[in-house]
Design a protein that fits this description.
Number of strands: 0
Mean pLDDT: 83
Oligomer: single chain
Radius of gyration: 21 Å
Largest sheet: none
Shape: globular
CATH class: Mainly Alpha
Order of helices and strands: HHHHHHHHHHHHHH
Structural class: mainly alpha
Helix content: over 70%
CATH architecture: Up-down Bundle
Strand content: under 5%
Number of helices: 14
CATH topology: Amino acid/polyamine transporter I
Low-confidence stretches: none
Distance between the termini: 19 Å
CATH superfamily: Amino acid/polyamine transporter I
């Protein structure tokens, strides 16, 4: 059942990505959803979602990724902290240290150190997932290990509420396909760059995620997956012998890459809101030598640290999912309004069939309603 949820989340994300490619090439302003709502002068909605995004959405995403990084790094070093309070603060401090390090990296141009580091993180992501996928399929094909997947729907408990919650968690994992929209003004040749980067990247990620989960289910039992706070590490312990010690570090590096992307998006979002006068003016300050919104970077770092104390990972992900999909529902309504009202956009914009943003808007609204009023 979980593989079905992963596939549904991938399909929804691909539809959304296509809609955001149209928005990014039509309205070439940084800030993504905030910029698009401001373009239509929907300032109350833009301001409301700006507040939610600034205080909840981006800080939660950064807090979740930083906490997950800490989990894997501690497992990689085989550190056992018996005192729950000490373990709690150790994970927080590790996550905070990473956030501050990435903040300082983002003080410099995207075209220099940050982009090079992102390449390293991408290689780590490919290496870690490739090892898991090939190992899992080796056990499936050559070892004939099928007992964990012989009855895929056994003991499956279906309800609309739990399924929607699971889809929101899956969508959170796929998130990032709109990252280029946050820095649209910094992209050269967006008509070519945005669809290639977003669609090819997202389809590749969807295939990798599905294959990785198949590998997990081949090797691990349901109870092992549910009990593990770092599934890749548990998988490595079961299959890779001495090489298992490398997996947590590879996963940690790829999480650093994801976290770097979240910090990039959050800072550009805050910077765009401050330029529109919706946040204190000092947040709009940028370093012109490196074209870096340094004040916004500091603010988003502090907010993320505060949000990390709001609850456990599942709670944080639910908060973020509700906020994000409410915002995207309004953004899709804005895109439909632009198309129906024939609003002027960039002449080089990419157009998708009108049914696509309408369908995606309906999905967004359904997810938000069901998450708000579960059965």
């Amino acid at each position: 059942m979980s593989l079905v949820v992963w596939a549904l989340a991938a399909l929804i994300s691909i539809f959304g990505a296509l809609c955001y490619v149209e928005l990014g090439t039509s309205i070439r302003a940084s800030g993504a959803d905030f910029a698009y709502l401001c373009y239509l002068k929907w300032y109350p909605l833009a301001f409301g979602f700006m507040c939610v995004g600034s205080v909840v959405l981006f800080p939660v995403a950064i807090a979740v990724q930083a906490q997950t990084f800490s989990e894997y790094l501690i497992q990689g070093f085989r550190i056992e902290i018996c005192d729950p309070t000490a373990a709690f603060f150790a994970k927080k401090l590790l996550g905070f240290a990473l956030i501050w390090l990435l903040m300082f990296m983002n003080f410099f141009s995207l075209k220099t150190f940050v982009s090079r580091f992102q390449i390293v993180a991408t290689f780590a992501k490919i290496a870690a997932t490739s090892i898991v996928i090939f190992t899992g399929f080796y056990f499936l094909i050559f070892k004939g290990m099928t007992e964990n997947i012989s009855a895929p729907f056994e003991d499956a408990k279906f309800s609309v509420g739990t399924t929607v919650t699971a889809i929101l968690s899956g969508l959170f994992a796929y998130d990032g396909w709109d990252i280029l929209n946050y820095g649209a003004e910094e992209i050269e040749h967006p008509r070519r760059t945005m669809p290639l980067a977003i669609i090819i990247g997202l389809v590749s990620v969807a295939v990798i995620y599905l294959a990785t989960n198949v590998a997990y289910f081949v090797v691990l039992t349901k109870s092992q997956i549910l009990a593990s706070s770092a599934v890749a590490s548990t998988f490595a312990q079961e299959t890779l012998g001495g090489f298992q010690y490398a997996i947590p570090f590879l996963v940690s590096i790829l999480l650093v890459g994801s976290l770097n992307g979240s910090i990039f998006s959050a800072s550009r979002y805050l910077h765009a809101a401050a330029r529109q006068g919706h946040l204190p003016p000092f947040i709009s300050c940028a370093n012109h030598r490196y074209d870096s919104p340094r004040a916004a970077l500091v603010v988003c770092t502090l907010l993320s640290m505060a949000m990390s104390f709001a609850g456990n990972l599942d709670t944080l992900i639910n908060y973020a999912g509700f906020a994000q999909w409410s915002q995207r529902a309004c953004t899709m309504c804005a895109l439909v309004w632009i198309r129906v009202g024939h609003k002027p956009v960039h002449p080089d914009a990419i157009r998708t069939p009108i049914v696509l943003p309408i369908a995606f808007a309906i999905v967004c609204i359904a997810l938000v309603i069901e998450d708000s009023f579960p059965a």
